[in-house]
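From the pipeline queue, job 12 of 40. The input is one protein chain; the requested action is below.

Action: predict structure.
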Amino acid sequence: MYRALVLAAALCAVAVAPTSALAANWLPHPADASWTWQWTDSVYSPTPTTEKVTVKEQKGASFTLGWTTADLGNADDAVDSQGTMVFQETSSGIVNTDWSSTAPPPEFPILCSSASRCGNSLTSVWYQVIWGSRSPTLALPVVSGASWSSTGGANADVTSTSTYLGQEKVSVPAFPQPVTAAKVRSDVTQAGALGDPYGSGVRTIWWVSGVGPVKIVFEHAGGTKAAVTTAVLQTTNQQPDATTPIDANYFPLKQGAKTRYSWTNTKWLKKKSVTEFSVAQVQNNSARVDVKHISGPIRLAGSYGFALRTDGLTNIFGSTKAASLAKFPQLGPRFLAADKRRHFFTPYDLMIYGLNPILPDSTAAGTTWSVGSTSGRDWQVFGVTGTSKVLGLRKVTVPGGTFNALAVQSTLKQSGYAYGSGTRTSYFAPNKGLVKLVFKHGDGSTSTVELLK
Protein backbone atom coordinates (compact mmCIF):
# COMPACT_ATOMS: atom_id res chain seq x y z
CA MET A 1 0.00 0.00 0.00
CA TYR A 2 0.98 3.61 -0.69
CA ARG A 3 1.01 5.39 2.63
CA ALA A 4 1.63 8.73 4.28
CA LEU A 5 5.11 8.59 5.80
CA VAL A 6 5.33 11.60 8.09
CA LEU A 7 2.45 13.11 10.06
CA ALA A 8 3.81 14.93 13.08
CA ALA A 9 5.52 17.83 11.33
CA ALA A 10 2.39 18.89 9.49
CA LEU A 11 0.24 18.83 12.60
CA CYS A 12 2.49 20.42 15.19
CA ALA A 13 0.87 23.85 14.87
CA VAL A 14 -2.74 22.69 15.06
CA ALA A 15 -4.44 22.37 18.41
CA VAL A 16 -6.89 19.53 18.83
CA ALA A 17 -10.33 20.93 19.54
CA PRO A 18 -13.83 19.56 20.06
CA THR A 19 -15.92 18.61 17.06
CA SER A 20 -17.69 21.49 15.39
CA ALA A 21 -21.10 21.54 13.75
CA LEU A 22 -19.81 24.25 11.43
CA ALA A 23 -16.90 22.06 10.33
CA ALA A 24 -19.35 19.26 9.61
CA ASN A 25 -21.36 21.59 7.36
CA TRP A 26 -18.36 22.22 5.10
CA LEU A 27 -17.38 18.55 4.96
CA PRO A 28 -20.41 16.45 6.00
CA HIS A 29 -19.79 12.82 6.77
CA PRO A 30 -22.94 10.93 7.77
CA ALA A 31 -22.49 7.17 7.55
CA ASP A 32 -24.40 6.86 4.26
CA ALA A 33 -22.83 9.85 2.48
CA SER A 34 -21.40 9.34 -1.00
CA TRP A 35 -19.94 11.50 -3.75
CA THR A 36 -19.02 10.53 -7.31
CA TRP A 37 -16.36 12.63 -9.04
CA GLN A 38 -14.84 12.82 -12.48
CA TRP A 39 -11.40 14.31 -13.01
CA THR A 40 -8.81 14.73 -15.75
CA ASP A 41 -5.22 15.90 -16.06
CA SER A 42 -4.66 17.68 -19.37
CA VAL A 43 -1.15 16.23 -19.81
CA TYR A 44 -0.80 13.03 -17.77
CA SER A 45 -4.36 11.67 -17.76
CA PRO A 46 -6.59 13.31 -20.38
CA THR A 47 -8.96 10.34 -20.24
CA PRO A 48 -11.57 11.08 -17.54
CA THR A 49 -11.33 9.10 -14.30
CA THR A 50 -14.49 8.51 -12.28
CA GLU A 51 -14.11 7.73 -8.60
CA LYS A 52 -16.63 7.19 -5.82
CA VAL A 53 -16.08 8.50 -2.30
CA THR A 54 -17.87 7.12 0.78
CA VAL A 55 -17.62 7.42 4.55
CA LYS A 56 -15.70 4.47 5.98
CA GLU A 57 -15.51 5.30 9.66
CA GLN A 58 -16.47 7.94 12.24
CA LYS A 59 -14.89 8.24 15.66
CA GLY A 60 -15.39 11.35 17.77
CA ALA A 61 -14.07 14.35 15.87
CA SER A 62 -12.29 12.14 13.31
CA PHE A 63 -13.71 10.48 10.22
CA THR A 64 -12.36 8.46 7.31
CA LEU A 65 -13.29 8.85 3.66
CA GLY A 66 -12.59 6.06 1.20
CA TRP A 67 -12.52 6.10 -2.57
CA THR A 68 -12.38 3.66 -5.45
CA THR A 69 -12.36 3.74 -9.24
CA ALA A 70 -13.48 0.10 -9.54
CA ASP A 71 -16.74 -0.87 -11.26
CA LEU A 72 -17.49 2.68 -12.38
CA GLY A 73 -17.14 2.16 -16.13
CA ASN A 74 -13.71 3.75 -16.41
CA ALA A 75 -11.72 3.33 -19.62
CA ASP A 76 -8.63 1.11 -19.61
CA ASP A 77 -6.30 4.12 -19.72
CA ALA A 78 -8.03 5.97 -16.85
CA VAL A 79 -6.29 6.10 -13.47
CA ASP A 80 -6.84 3.06 -11.23
CA SER A 81 -6.95 4.18 -7.62
CA GLN A 82 -8.26 3.07 -4.24
CA GLY A 83 -7.54 4.62 -0.87
CA THR A 84 -8.63 6.18 2.39
CA MET A 85 -8.13 9.59 3.94
CA VAL A 86 -8.59 10.59 7.58
CA PHE A 87 -9.78 14.01 8.69
CA GLN A 88 -10.33 15.70 12.02
CA GLU A 89 -12.74 18.51 12.82
CA THR A 90 -11.36 21.28 15.01
CA SER A 91 -12.75 24.66 16.01
CA SER A 92 -10.20 26.31 13.72
CA GLY A 93 -10.75 24.16 10.66
CA ILE A 94 -10.68 20.77 8.97
CA VAL A 95 -7.35 18.93 9.25
CA ASN A 96 -6.08 15.92 7.32
CA THR A 97 -4.24 13.49 9.61
CA ASP A 98 -3.47 10.40 7.50
CA TRP A 99 -3.94 8.67 4.15
CA SER A 100 -3.34 5.34 2.43
CA SER A 101 -3.77 4.40 -1.24
CA THR A 102 -2.49 2.59 -4.27
CA ALA A 103 0.58 4.12 -5.89
CA PRO A 104 0.15 6.67 -8.69
CA PRO A 105 0.69 5.51 -12.29
CA PRO A 106 4.35 5.66 -13.40
CA GLU A 107 3.62 8.26 -16.08
CA PHE A 108 2.84 10.88 -13.43
CA PRO A 109 5.62 13.16 -12.08
CA ILE A 110 7.44 11.93 -8.95
CA LEU A 111 6.51 14.37 -6.19
CA CYS A 112 9.47 13.64 -3.88
CA SER A 113 13.22 14.17 -4.01
CA SER A 114 13.60 10.42 -4.41
CA ALA A 115 11.38 7.83 -6.06
CA SER A 116 12.01 5.44 -3.17
CA ARG A 117 9.27 5.43 -0.52
CA CYS A 118 7.66 8.56 -1.91
CA GLY A 119 4.42 9.21 -0.06
CA ASN A 120 3.08 11.98 -2.30
CA SER A 121 0.45 11.73 -4.99
CA LEU A 122 -2.02 13.87 -6.95
CA THR A 123 -3.93 11.01 -8.60
CA SER A 124 -7.18 11.26 -6.66
CA VAL A 125 -9.69 14.00 -5.98
CA TRP A 126 -8.89 14.13 -2.28
CA TYR A 127 -5.15 14.23 -2.93
CA GLN A 128 -5.86 17.30 -5.02
CA VAL A 129 -7.78 18.85 -2.10
CA ILE A 130 -5.11 18.27 0.57
CA TRP A 131 -2.03 18.99 -1.56
CA GLY A 132 -0.13 21.63 0.39
CA SER A 133 -3.19 22.02 2.60
CA ARG A 134 -3.31 19.33 5.22
CA SER A 135 -3.03 21.55 8.24
CA PRO A 136 -5.58 22.99 7.78
CA THR A 137 -7.36 21.75 4.69
CA LEU A 138 -10.01 24.44 5.16
CA ALA A 139 -9.66 27.14 7.80
CA LEU A 140 -12.85 28.01 9.67
CA PRO A 141 -14.92 30.06 9.98
CA VAL A 142 -15.18 30.99 6.31
CA VAL A 143 -15.45 34.77 6.49
CA SER A 144 -14.71 37.67 4.19
CA GLY A 145 -11.03 38.47 3.90
CA ALA A 146 -9.89 35.18 5.43
CA SER A 147 -6.45 33.92 4.44
CA TRP A 148 -4.21 31.29 5.95
CA SER A 149 -1.00 29.36 5.43
CA SER A 150 -0.86 25.60 5.42
CA THR A 151 1.46 22.67 4.88
CA GLY A 152 1.15 19.32 3.17
CA GLY A 153 2.97 16.43 1.60
CA ALA A 154 4.21 13.33 3.37
CA ASN A 155 7.18 15.24 4.74
CA ALA A 156 5.45 18.62 5.14
CA ASP A 157 7.50 19.78 2.16
CA VAL A 158 4.59 21.41 0.33
CA THR A 159 3.31 24.81 1.44
CA SER A 160 0.35 26.91 0.46
CA THR A 161 -1.20 30.28 1.09
CA SER A 162 -4.97 30.22 0.75
CA THR A 163 -7.41 33.10 0.35
CA TYR A 164 -11.17 33.05 0.55
CA LEU A 165 -12.38 34.95 -2.52
CA GLY A 166 -16.06 35.15 -1.58
CA GLN A 167 -19.24 33.38 -2.61
CA GLU A 168 -19.86 32.40 -6.21
CA LYS A 169 -22.52 30.47 -8.10
CA VAL A 170 -21.10 27.32 -9.68
CA SER A 171 -22.69 24.73 -11.94
CA VAL A 172 -21.78 21.05 -11.57
CA PRO A 173 -23.57 17.90 -12.83
CA ALA A 174 -24.48 16.86 -9.26
CA PHE A 175 -27.18 19.55 -9.03
CA PRO A 176 -29.82 20.68 -11.52
CA GLN A 177 -29.29 24.37 -10.70
CA PRO A 178 -26.19 26.45 -9.88
CA VAL A 179 -25.24 26.29 -6.20
CA THR A 180 -23.62 28.93 -3.99
CA ALA A 181 -20.04 28.04 -3.15
CA ALA A 182 -17.22 29.46 -1.08
CA LYS A 183 -14.36 30.00 -3.53
CA VAL A 184 -10.86 29.39 -2.13
CA ARG A 185 -7.66 30.03 -4.08
CA SER A 186 -4.39 28.45 -2.94
CA ASP A 187 -0.91 29.31 -4.16
CA VAL A 188 0.95 26.03 -3.73
CA THR A 189 4.73 25.60 -3.68
CA GLN A 190 6.92 22.50 -3.73
CA ALA A 191 10.65 22.61 -4.41
CA GLY A 192 13.18 19.80 -4.74
CA ALA A 193 10.92 17.09 -6.13
CA LEU A 194 11.97 15.03 -9.14
CA GLY A 195 8.69 15.99 -10.75
CA ASP A 196 9.12 19.75 -10.35
CA PRO A 197 7.37 22.01 -11.20
CA TYR A 198 4.20 19.84 -11.28
CA GLY A 199 3.83 20.05 -7.49
CA SER A 200 3.55 23.85 -7.60
CA GLY A 201 0.76 25.97 -9.00
CA VAL A 202 -2.55 27.67 -8.31
CA ARG A 203 -5.47 25.61 -7.07
CA THR A 204 -9.06 26.81 -6.79
CA ILE A 205 -11.68 24.86 -4.82
CA TRP A 206 -15.39 25.61 -4.66
CA TRP A 207 -16.81 24.47 -1.30
CA VAL A 208 -20.57 24.13 -0.75
CA SER A 209 -21.96 24.10 2.78
CA GLY A 210 -23.82 20.83 3.31
CA VAL A 211 -21.92 19.04 0.53
CA GLY A 212 -18.17 19.72 0.67
CA PRO A 213 -15.99 20.48 -2.36
CA VAL A 214 -17.85 20.40 -5.67
CA LYS A 215 -15.18 21.58 -8.13
CA ILE A 216 -11.37 21.74 -8.20
CA VAL A 217 -9.08 23.36 -10.77
CA PHE A 218 -5.32 22.97 -10.25
CA GLU A 219 -3.21 24.93 -12.71
CA HIS A 220 0.24 23.40 -12.32
CA ALA A 221 3.43 25.37 -12.78
CA GLY A 222 5.49 24.75 -15.88
CA GLY A 223 6.11 26.00 -19.39
CA THR A 224 3.80 26.21 -22.36
CA LYS A 225 2.61 22.64 -21.78
CA ALA A 226 1.86 22.99 -18.07
CA ALA A 227 -0.81 20.57 -16.89
CA VAL A 228 -4.24 21.52 -15.59
CA THR A 229 -6.13 19.14 -13.32
CA THR A 230 -9.90 19.56 -13.21
CA ALA A 231 -12.30 17.65 -10.94
CA VAL A 232 -16.08 18.06 -10.94
CA LEU A 233 -18.71 16.48 -8.69
CA GLN A 234 -21.06 14.26 -10.72
CA THR A 235 -23.51 12.90 -8.12
CA THR A 236 -24.03 12.95 -4.36
CA ASN A 237 -26.74 12.15 -1.84
CA GLN A 238 -25.85 15.29 0.13
CA GLN A 239 -27.76 18.54 -0.33
CA PRO A 240 -26.58 22.16 -0.09
CA ASP A 241 -27.70 23.92 3.07
CA ALA A 242 -31.02 25.67 2.55
CA THR A 243 -29.61 28.93 3.91
CA THR A 244 -26.51 30.43 2.34
CA PRO A 245 -23.85 30.82 5.04
CA ILE A 246 -23.21 34.41 6.13
CA ASP A 247 -19.58 35.25 5.46
CA ALA A 248 -19.51 38.78 6.88
CA ASN A 249 -16.44 39.31 9.06
CA TYR A 250 -17.42 41.50 11.98
CA PHE A 251 -13.97 41.53 13.55
CA PRO A 252 -11.31 41.12 10.84
CA LEU A 253 -7.89 40.00 12.04
CA LYS A 254 -5.78 41.15 9.12
CA GLN A 255 -2.14 41.78 9.85
CA GLY A 256 -1.28 45.46 9.59
CA ALA A 257 -4.88 46.67 9.89
CA LYS A 258 -5.29 49.79 12.05
CA THR A 259 -8.24 51.44 13.75
CA ARG A 260 -8.41 54.61 15.86
CA TYR A 261 -10.98 55.37 18.55
CA SER A 262 -12.05 58.08 20.93
CA TRP A 263 -13.37 57.27 24.40
CA THR A 264 -15.16 59.55 26.85
CA ASN A 265 -17.02 59.02 30.10
CA THR A 266 -19.62 61.53 31.27
CA LYS A 267 -18.20 61.56 34.81
CA TRP A 268 -14.66 60.20 34.82
CA LEU A 269 -13.21 61.02 31.39
CA LYS A 270 -14.68 64.20 29.91
CA LYS A 271 -11.62 64.88 27.74
CA LYS A 272 -11.30 62.38 24.90
CA SER A 273 -8.76 59.61 25.12
CA VAL A 274 -7.67 58.67 21.60
CA THR A 275 -5.96 55.34 20.99
CA GLU A 276 -4.85 53.39 17.95
CA PHE A 277 -5.03 49.62 17.57
CA SER A 278 -2.97 47.64 15.05
CA VAL A 279 -3.09 43.94 14.23
CA ALA A 280 0.53 42.97 14.84
CA GLN A 281 0.64 39.22 14.36
CA VAL A 282 -1.76 36.66 12.89
CA GLN A 283 -1.57 32.87 12.81
CA ASN A 284 -4.34 30.29 12.36
CA ASN A 285 -7.08 32.91 12.84
CA SER A 286 -5.54 34.05 16.13
CA ALA A 287 -4.04 37.50 16.45
CA ARG A 288 -2.19 39.88 18.71
CA VAL A 289 -3.50 43.43 18.58
CA ASP A 290 -1.32 46.23 19.96
CA VAL A 291 -2.61 49.54 21.31
CA LYS A 292 -0.86 52.88 21.68
CA HIS A 293 -1.68 56.35 22.99
CA ILE A 294 -2.46 59.07 20.45
CA SER A 295 -3.82 61.90 22.59
CA GLY A 296 -5.70 62.62 25.79
CA PRO A 297 -5.16 62.11 29.50
CA ILE A 298 -4.31 58.37 29.43
CA ARG A 299 -0.83 57.45 28.26
CA LEU A 300 -0.68 53.73 27.66
CA ALA A 301 0.66 50.76 25.73
CA GLY A 302 -0.58 47.22 25.61
CA SER A 303 -1.60 44.14 23.68
CA TYR A 304 -4.66 41.94 23.33
CA GLY A 305 -5.11 38.44 21.97
CA PHE A 306 -8.11 37.22 20.00
CA ALA A 307 -9.07 33.89 18.46
CA LEU A 308 -11.70 33.55 15.75
CA ARG A 309 -13.10 30.03 15.79
CA THR A 310 -16.28 28.21 14.82
CA ASP A 311 -17.76 29.01 18.24
CA GLY A 312 -17.19 32.75 17.88
CA LEU A 313 -14.65 35.48 18.60
CA THR A 314 -12.89 35.06 21.95
CA ASN A 315 -10.51 37.29 23.85
CA ILE A 316 -7.63 35.16 25.13
CA PHE A 317 -5.50 37.79 26.86
CA GLY A 318 -5.21 41.49 27.55
CA SER A 319 -2.39 43.49 29.09
CA THR A 320 -2.01 47.26 29.33
CA LYS A 321 0.23 49.66 31.21
CA ALA A 322 -1.01 53.18 31.70
CA ALA A 323 -0.29 56.49 33.37
CA SER A 324 -3.54 58.38 33.70
CA LEU A 325 -4.37 61.94 34.72
CA ALA A 326 -7.99 60.84 34.95
CA LYS A 327 -9.14 59.10 38.13
CA PHE A 328 -11.40 56.09 37.75
CA PRO A 329 -13.38 54.04 40.28
CA GLN A 330 -11.94 50.69 41.24
CA LEU A 331 -13.00 47.46 39.59
CA GLY A 332 -13.26 44.07 41.25
CA PRO A 333 -13.45 41.26 41.85
CA ARG A 334 -12.63 41.26 45.55
CA PHE A 335 -11.13 37.77 45.45
CA LEU A 336 -8.24 39.04 43.28
CA ALA A 337 -5.36 41.10 44.60
CA ALA A 338 -5.59 44.75 43.56
CA ASP A 339 -2.68 44.45 41.13
CA LYS A 340 -4.37 41.50 39.39
CA ARG A 341 -7.66 43.24 38.63
CA ARG A 342 -8.61 44.58 35.23
CA HIS A 343 -8.86 48.29 34.44
CA PHE A 344 -10.75 50.36 31.89
CA PHE A 345 -7.92 52.12 30.06
CA THR A 346 -8.84 51.49 26.40
CA PRO A 347 -11.92 50.84 24.24
CA TYR A 348 -10.95 47.17 24.04
CA ASP A 349 -10.92 46.94 27.84
CA LEU A 350 -14.57 47.97 27.74
CA MET A 351 -15.31 45.60 24.84
CA ILE A 352 -13.77 42.40 26.27
CA TYR A 353 -14.99 42.93 29.83
CA GLY A 354 -17.17 40.32 31.49
CA LEU A 355 -17.66 37.27 29.32
CA ASN A 356 -16.70 35.46 26.15
CA PRO A 357 -17.36 35.11 23.32
CA ILE A 358 -17.32 38.74 22.24
CA LEU A 359 -19.22 37.66 19.14
CA PRO A 360 -21.01 34.29 18.95
CA ASP A 361 -21.01 31.78 16.12
CA SER A 362 -24.45 33.03 15.03
CA THR A 363 -25.35 36.57 14.02
CA ALA A 364 -29.08 35.87 14.24
CA ALA A 365 -31.03 38.40 16.31
CA GLY A 366 -32.00 36.90 19.66
CA THR A 367 -28.90 34.71 20.04
CA THR A 368 -27.91 34.78 23.73
CA TRP A 369 -25.09 33.49 25.92
CA SER A 370 -24.21 34.05 29.55
CA VAL A 371 -21.94 33.46 32.51
CA GLY A 372 -23.81 32.85 35.71
CA SER A 373 -21.66 30.59 37.83
CA THR A 374 -18.65 31.26 40.03
CA SER A 375 -16.31 29.11 37.96
CA GLY A 376 -14.58 29.16 34.62
CA ARG A 377 -11.91 31.36 33.09
CA ASP A 378 -14.07 34.45 32.62
CA TRP A 379 -15.26 34.38 36.22
CA GLN A 380 -11.69 34.00 37.48
CA VAL A 381 -10.57 37.00 35.39
CA PHE A 382 -13.54 39.36 35.74
CA GLY A 383 -15.74 38.10 38.57
CA VAL A 384 -18.77 39.13 36.52
CA THR A 385 -22.13 37.46 35.94
CA GLY A 386 -24.24 38.46 33.00
CA THR A 387 -25.87 37.79 29.67
CA SER A 388 -25.13 38.91 26.12
CA LYS A 389 -27.65 39.09 23.30
CA VAL A 390 -27.44 39.79 19.57
CA LEU A 391 -29.88 42.61 18.84
CA GLY A 392 -29.47 42.50 15.07
CA LEU A 393 -28.31 45.08 12.54
CA ARG A 394 -28.43 48.78 13.41
CA LYS A 395 -27.45 51.86 11.43
CA VAL A 396 -24.63 53.65 13.23
CA THR A 397 -22.97 56.96 12.36
CA VAL A 398 -19.63 57.82 13.96
CA PRO A 399 -16.75 60.09 12.88
CA GLY A 400 -15.26 57.13 10.99
CA GLY A 401 -18.34 56.69 8.80
CA THR A 402 -21.85 55.28 8.63
CA PHE A 403 -22.22 51.53 9.04
CA ASN A 404 -24.90 48.84 9.08
CA ALA A 405 -23.52 47.29 12.24
CA LEU A 406 -24.30 44.18 14.27
CA ALA A 407 -25.41 45.24 17.77
CA VAL A 408 -24.56 43.08 20.79
CA GLN A 409 -25.92 44.05 24.20
CA SER A 410 -24.53 42.74 27.50
CA THR A 411 -26.02 43.10 30.96
CA LEU A 412 -23.19 42.78 33.51
CA LYS A 413 -23.00 42.55 37.29
CA GLN A 414 -19.80 42.77 39.32
CA SER A 415 -20.79 42.39 42.96
CA GLY A 416 -19.81 45.41 45.07
CA TYR A 417 -18.56 47.49 42.12
CA ALA A 418 -21.10 49.78 40.45
CA TYR A 419 -18.61 50.97 37.82
CA GLY A 420 -18.03 47.34 36.78
CA SER A 421 -21.76 46.73 36.44
CA GLY A 422 -24.27 47.99 33.89
CA THR A 423 -25.40 47.60 30.30
CA ARG A 424 -22.99 47.63 27.37
CA THR A 425 -23.97 47.81 23.71
CA SER A 426 -21.24 47.13 21.16
CA TYR A 427 -21.60 47.71 17.43
CA PHE A 428 -19.53 45.71 14.92
CA ALA A 429 -19.38 46.57 11.20
CA PRO A 430 -18.53 44.04 8.47
CA ASN A 431 -14.85 44.06 7.52
CA LYS A 432 -14.19 46.85 10.05
CA GLY A 433 -14.77 45.51 13.55
CA LEU A 434 -15.87 47.58 16.52
CA VAL A 435 -17.23 50.96 15.42
CA LYS A 436 -19.12 52.08 18.52
CA LEU A 437 -19.63 51.07 22.14
CA VAL A 438 -21.89 52.56 24.80
CA PHE A 439 -21.45 51.32 28.38
CA LYS A 440 -24.03 52.62 30.86
CA HIS A 441 -22.28 51.92 34.17
CA GLY A 442 -24.06 51.18 37.40
CA ASP A 443 -22.64 54.35 38.99
CA GLY A 444 -24.68 56.53 36.63
CA SER A 445 -21.84 57.39 34.25
CA THR A 446 -21.75 56.48 30.56
CA SER A 447 -18.71 55.51 28.51
CA THR A 448 -18.89 56.14 24.77
CA VAL A 449 -16.42 54.77 22.24
CA GLU A 450 -16.47 55.85 18.60
CA LEU A 451 -14.40 54.88 15.57
CA LEU A 452 -12.44 57.84 14.24
CA LYS A 453 -10.82 56.11 11.27
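Job complete. Residues 2-236 form a domain with the YmcC-like fold fold (CATH 2.40.360).
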